[in-house]
């Protein structure tokens, strides 16, 4: 009897929820098939266990390396395909020169695993592709492959994680687990990288700033962008410009207008529909354009502003006025198309003052070029003068957004110089992880048929930690986490208040006794296979984000600081240490010098 | 009457061709709707004009920045939404410190444009998302938006291109063209970046080497990987490991086995099914395992090999033997799990010699760590000795594949050291474009309602070249391209044998007379809108690849060399030069020093 498995149809279902393709018939068929399958499979497939497929319908069992299928064939030929294997997914080095990583991508992995089933067409393609001819028995085998006998233990998505500790432990028939290797690595690698990048940007920007992800146009392809929007939100961003991501994941959306909008106007004379209702609907201003012009004159002649404002750009004024007429409650203007201080800011203020007359509060300005520290400061001064001069309480706090090729370094530089920016729009450097475009997660065999396996390498950092393991995070008196420790599967769990020896896995002199005040088991069961364990529910995106933010607050500040952070300690139990080194000596050939 | 437009249904159709979701009903519905739509729309929608949607079903009109929709609303409110706008898509700087770029992504753009239509659900989402309430008239407007009145002129995909020259010129109603801005940039930016990266790797590796793209697991998400596979193939790679990409695009697939496969075996005793037919089917070897063992002994005792081979790893030997039993015609072994020269290569040779007895020719070995120059040389020596010693003609040329974190620099270093590698498997650095993770294509308004527009900037390299333009590539006597030139839309075309003045767009002293031996117009009509022009057909992927390879051959070698390449000249006509500078002075405010 199959458990937890909903076949092919859920892929349609994911399309339905993901994209609402607009064909009711299509949707009905998806649901009908679901019901039919549920019936056919009996009560074991119940509604509570059904899971949508991955967000991107391109994530199918074929999204894998060909060698996973050639190996599956060779395992099958050798009668080894059902050997019980345990693989760990982990990385060896934190990205961006830092000492922490945010784990992300788990939900998509579980959705893939829950729906892992080859279609007949996919099977035909594989058999045509494998070198030589495929035996019929293998075709039958492929037809029956699913993840009903696979178990997945993972750290919660959004958790701060460290090198060598398994993020996922995947157990099951070796051929099936190998097929999962590539897509699972693909789904975790970029997700964790970009979530970490976002978290780093949040740490530099500070909690009080609004962070917007603006990377869609420069991302590595369509779902390089959509994934980035999702995982930047997890890492602590507040909103995205990417409408598709907003719709798929419910991430708040932000956006106003571009330079092209500004330069598409010639002059306010173009504006034909000039009337605007008051905010409370009580009356109508028949000529908002003239109201704006009159405020612009007042600004130009204002002594408080030092008569410094000359003629502003009329095409820009027309664009701002038009935008305000369309969105009087959400007026935010891009002020750097011509000249920020001589044109953009005065034009914005004129429109904002006119809107204020009609009871609308403007949102602010966006700067997309130039010296952001200086310009934001100058704009703030103008806002403060106007607040006083024209009696607009709060106008001095008008929001200033900055968005010109920002990254960790430029945010840090802005902090050092002092600035008046309230909100950052960050694109290219964030979503492409320009500073380090890949995270090197690996997926290593640690046990087969209950036999521990070790992968040796001349580079110690590449030696794998064998055995099916348990992983714990130990917390100290101040609430910070002190150390992660891996133990053998059957060792007793570390206990609160009890001293435990934590050893560096490869460096014999590095060790410490720890008396934990709190012990957290890191790996939880997200896909129980046939183990009968309770399946951990996948949390909502917002909850993952909250978890991530809380996790970062629990880190000792020196582990997450930007420059020269302290490495976090990752250790093994004394027993596991001994076993690693026993196995190592056992497997490594003794060199011979001649 | 609508032209060239196939509404929503083609999105399903793309799903069908792209993924074969396995539900016949679904497919039929897609086709039925297509037919129904075709009927409803009359003969203007004919089969020849139907086009599939983008490869990734996530590419919809919502894959855009929110500000494109807020602007659309503001344009609509101002009655400007149908103003006729011309936008250029171009980049400002070649990537990777080079002086050329390979243009890619066009097909996906045209597929998006051909199917650009908002669904009712998408429209509802937009209206809920826009700040404030959406007027009913705008909803109606959104419902009717398509690209039937948009014209797209583009350089052929796979062409070598240079900064400032428009890769695409998109003309149409300003609100619609702005909606296209973000997705089109997204589809071109990474595609061109990774195609260029692949071409650069090909140039360093040389024509004779086999290049395999192995990046799926480290790519930026699922279609970061699938796009990379597609565009690396265009840029000159031979094959990919990515099964999904192989299936979607017909790219050749490659793959054998991993370290986990090797370490999942314990010893040859495990192998139960030991028989192998001769290649010609004439007889059967009942114990292939023993045959391998006997060859291993001969190798170990061979004087020609200097008695240097001791005991090899038996788990590795078991894995190789099993793999050969599964794929006797395609035996390729990963030889670095334990020790390349002491275990992997001798084990490979034993299996290859046994296969040879049965009439099978082995493919080769793969090295995934260590000193690739040295190890490939040592392995080659062994192969050559075995060719002589055991009389296997051609065995000395057994293929050697290398695949350990390779990039342009390491390929270059291997060339300098000398090596015996025949084939490279390249992953992370290739597909994530690690050396430069983003290309900065922009999309700038150059004309609206026949009025040229210029975008100014204090940074001259950021000033846009105004006007609807034509672009030509001029070729010299030796067949190499000499210069690209942009002219106004209505200027006469440069003529073969006639002298023309080519000016640097911004540097008045840089100019040259050119007498072209061949003139190529770069921008072709890929989407005619209502212009009545003939639509350029989208070529097959293989043809794009061939075009790219031919293009690189036509480049003067100094433009494409790795170190200190010569910049290729991009120029404007004398008339366009004068106009740019007239407009510039006209728009830029005169500074005032106090």
Automatic annotation (TrEMBL), chains A, B:
Domain of life, per lineage: Eukaryota
Main EC class the enzyme belongs to: ligase
Pathway annotation: Cofactor biosynthesis; NAD(+) biosynthesis; nicotinate D-ribonucleotide from nicotinate: step 1/1
Domain Nicotinate phosphoribosyltransferase C-terminal: 468-579
Residue ranges annotated for the Nicotinate phosphoribosyltransferase N-terminal domain, each copy included: 62-189
Gene Ontology terms describing biological process: NAD+ biosynthetic process via the salvage pathway
SUPFAM superfamilies: Nicotinate/Quinolinate PRTase C-terminal domain-like, Nicotinate/Quinolinate PRTase N-terminal domain-like
One function term, GO molecular function aspect: glycosyltransferase activity
Catalytic activity: 5-phospho-alpha-D-ribose 1-diphosphate + nicotinate + ATP + H2O = nicotinate beta-D-ribonucleotide + ADP + phosphate + diphosphate
GO cellular component: cytosol
Co-factor requirement: Mg(2+); Mn(2+)
A Pfam family recorded for this sequence: NAPRTase_C
Modified how: Transiently phosphorylated on a His residue during the reaction cycle. Phosphorylation strongly increases the affinity for substrates and increases the rate of nicotinate D-ribonucleotide production. Dephosphorylation regenerates the low-affinity form of the enzyme, leading to product release.
Keyword tags: Glycosyltransferase, Ligase, Magnesium, Manganese, Metal-binding, Phosphoprotein, Pyridine nucleotide biosynthesis, Transferase
Keyword Glycosyltransferase: yes
Listed EC numbers: 6.3.4.21
Cited function: Catalyzes the first step in the biosynthesis of NAD from nicotinic acid, the ATP-dependent synthesis of beta-nicotinate D-ribonucleotide from nicotinate and 5-phospho-D-ribose 1-phosphate. Helps prevent cellular oxidative stress via its role in NAD biosynthesis.
Family under the similarity heading: Belongs to the NAPRTase family.
PANTHER family: NICOTINATE PHOSPHORIBOSYLTRANSFERASE (PTHR11098)
Full protein name: Nicotinate phosphoribosyltransferase
Provenance organism: Gossypium darwinii
């Amino acid at each position: 009897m199959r458990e937890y498995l909903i076949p092919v149809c859920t892929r349609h279902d994911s399309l339905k929820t993901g994209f609402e393709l607009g064909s009711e018939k299509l949707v009905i068929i998806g649901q009908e098939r679901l019901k039919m399958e549920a019936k056919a499979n009996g009560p074991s497939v119940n509604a509570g266990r059904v899971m949508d497929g991955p967000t991107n319908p391109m994530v199918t069992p074929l999204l894998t390396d060909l060698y996973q299928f050639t190996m599956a064939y060779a395992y099958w030929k050798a009668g080894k395909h059902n050997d019980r294997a345990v693989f760990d997914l982990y990385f060896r080095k934190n990205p961006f020169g830092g000492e922490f990583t945010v784990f992300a991508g788990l939900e998509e992995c579980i959705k893939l695993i829950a729906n892992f089933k080859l279609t007949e067409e996919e099977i035909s393609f594989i058999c045509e592709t494998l070198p030589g001819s495929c035996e019929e028995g293998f075709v039958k085998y492929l037809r029956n492959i699913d993840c009903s006998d696979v178990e997945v233990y993972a750290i919660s998505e959004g958790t701060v994680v460290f090198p060598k500790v398994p993020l996922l432990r995947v157990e099951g028939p070796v051929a099936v687990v190998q097929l999962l290797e590539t897509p699972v690595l693909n789904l975790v690698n970029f997700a964790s990288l970009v979530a970490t990048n976002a978290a780093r940007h949040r740490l530099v920007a500070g909690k009080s700033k609004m962070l917007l992800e603006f990377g869609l146009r420069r991302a590595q392809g369509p779902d390089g962008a959509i994934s980035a929007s999702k995982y930047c939100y997890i890492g602590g961003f507040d909103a995205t410009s990417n409408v598709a991501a907003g719709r798929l994941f419910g991430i708040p959306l932000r956006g106003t207008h571009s330079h092209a909008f500004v330069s598409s106007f010639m002059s306010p004379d173009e504006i034909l529909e000039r009337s605007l209702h008051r905010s409370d609907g009580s009356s109508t201003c028949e000529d908002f354009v003239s109201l704006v012009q009159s405020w612009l004159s007042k600004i130009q002649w204002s002594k408080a502003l030092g008569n410094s404002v000359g003629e502003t750009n009329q095409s820009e004024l027309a664009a701002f006025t038009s935008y305000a007429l369309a969105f009087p409650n959400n007026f935010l203007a891009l002020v750097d198309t011509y000249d920020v201080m001589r044109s953009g800011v005065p034009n914005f203020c004129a429109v904002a003052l006119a809107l204020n007359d009609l009871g609308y509060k403007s949102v602010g300005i966006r700067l997309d070029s130039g010296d952001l520290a200086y310009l934001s400061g100058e704009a703030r001064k103008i806002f403060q003068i106007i607040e006083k001069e024209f009696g607009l309480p709060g106008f001095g706090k008008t929001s200033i957004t900055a968005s010109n090729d920002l990254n960790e370094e430029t945010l840090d530089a802005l902090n050092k110089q002092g600035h008046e920016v309230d909100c950052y729009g960050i694109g290219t450097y964030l979503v492409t992880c320009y500073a380090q475009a890949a995270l090197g997660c690996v997926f290593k065999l640690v046990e087969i048929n209950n036999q521990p396996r070790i992968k040796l390498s001349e580079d110690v950092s590449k030696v794998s930690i064998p055995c099916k393991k348990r992983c714990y995070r130990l917390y100290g008196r101040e609430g910070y986490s002190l150390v992660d420790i891996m133990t053998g599967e059957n060792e007793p769990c570390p206990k609160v208040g009890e001293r435990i020896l934590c050893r560096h896995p490869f460096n014999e002199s590095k060790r410490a006794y720890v008396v934990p005040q709190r012990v957290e088991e890191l790996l939880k069961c997200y896909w129980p296979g046939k183990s009968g364990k309770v399946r951990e529910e996948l949390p909502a995106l917002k909850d993952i984000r909250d978890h991530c933010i809380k996790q970062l607050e629990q880190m000792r500040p020196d582990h997450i600081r930007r420059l020269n952070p302290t490495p976090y300690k990752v250790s093994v139990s004394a027993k596991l240490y001994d076993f690693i080194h026993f196995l190592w000596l056992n497997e490594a050939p003794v060199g011979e010098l001649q």
